[in-house]
Amino acid sequence: MMMGHAFSGRSSGANVDGDTFGRVYDKRVILRLLPYVKPYRKLAVFAFIAMLVYTGSQVAIPFLIHLGIDGYIERRDFGGLLVVGGAFISIALAGLVANYFQQLFMARAGLGMLYDLRREMFGHLQKLSLSYYDKTEVGRIMSRVQGDVWQLQELMTMVIMTAADLLSLTGIVVMLLIMNLKLGLITMAVLPILALTMAIWQPFAVRAFLRVRTAISIVNGELNENITGVRVVQSMNRQPRNLEIFDGKNTEHLKANLWAGKLSSSLLPAVDMLTALAIVLAIFFGSSMVSGNELEIGVLIAFIMYIQRFFDPIRNLTMQYTQLQRSMASGARIFELLDVEPDLVDDPKADRLPKLKGDVVLKDLSFSYAASEDIVRLDRESGGANGRTNGASDVPDVLKHLSLHINPGETVAVVGPTGAGKTTLVSLISRFYDVPREKGAILVDGYDIRDVTRSSLAGQMSMVLQEPFLFSGTVRENIKYNHPGASDAHMVEAAKAVGVHDIVMQLDEGYDTYLAERGVNLSLGQRQLLSFARAIVADPRILILDEATANIDSYTEMLIQQALQRLLKERTAIVIAHRLSTIRGADKIVVLNQGEIVEVGTHESLMELDGLYAHLYSMNYAAMEADVGDGD
Can you tell me whether residue 547 is helix, strand or coil? Predict the structure, then answer.
């Protein structure tokens, strides 16, 4: 069974690797982002130009006030003052318009990048092999596609806003020094104090913001676990205890946010105090310079306005610093995911399978999950030469030297105790995992499945799982899931073949009835019947049933058994059975134990053999008798 290896490969705990801070500038992330920016480069250029216009307008306004006061008001030149006033209004309006288009272009470019990234990540995740999902938590994947992409979407905005703030700072400093070098140097004497304040504040802020993100990740993890397992929670009456646990984690989140809020709030008064100090210095020294005719009154007023504007970009840059760190870290994690190579890749020389008869041969097949990826990778890199990675030989095989021939049209049941390797076997036949070449082979109609495209194999093979999974959508869309071009007549024929047509017709809108997530508005048995219909609408030559009747009631199982008698005609079927009574009529029964084939035969011959199968059947029959007795 796959469950054992699925958990063993996962990292321990709810590792909040999405809550780390990266560097403010990561060259690798920027270079990887460039192809995503390229389709929106015009928008980015327009946003940058608009930013220049807006920044220029903000820097020009105090200078125009100085020009109006010193150049025209003192001289009582009202004509010139009107010209300056007109220029002031025009520049202010230009700044407003430029700011609007800057925000608009940045939003369009950023959202376009977000769309492209999510689309590529979704497509990439669809290609990754099952072994990746065996080792990776779903929550971590969702964090990449949602949280990290959103953080990265804000990167373009941050870059342009940071450039605007830096240009604004540069422009203000230049104007201060041009208007009066002496007073400019005096007012900027507070900058070392500001730099020291930022140097002290920044490490505390990073730790505080990291604590907040870690805390919310823990809260979300607890929330997800309790919602997913709500049936178990309510059945065991764990609500009070779970609420107590959740309160503890939620309280930590509250404390983390309060501490981060205090730190953020402490910065603003410090910056405002330094702003006031700089203004006091400008007024104190500037007024004496005005009295001594060293400075014009308009310049002093412009100085005060520039000082007020000087600290706004600094405040913004401080907040953008941590945002840039988070964006860079998110970018690194996104591209790390996109760089994951699928373990299962078609050979460049792979051919498409012709129409199958359904002959399946296992040739000395062995397999181990932990070593399979490295072995397959090494096999590809060495051009097919035999070889193992270090330590691979120490990993025990889940399947060991299986050899079996399944004739076209045969129904073969695979049985065995838990952990025998039944699901692993059908997963390999379905080519969810690739078998290293030195570990044997699986042939379908004489073709090694590693030498053909997986799509051509999957197109002639269907699998029905123990847990039926339906998608949000109509009954019609679920049955035609992988074959949307199938006719309605073909769909109805498939539904009738599995005995679900009458059930569907009793729904409010028949085949157009919308199914909620996972089809929860249907019973388990109805969902399983629909999954059977979905499997056979493709008219597969090979049908795999992985304990497909394990979780359904006896009546639905009877319907499925009747349907199977019709469905399996002229099809090769591989059936993993939980209830051994359902596979008595199989052409061949294969008994697995600890990854090895220990018995093969019909029900009658295996019962006469009085081996493992007979023991399992006796136990299974006794359990069913006990269930019947309990029902009475």
Answer: coil
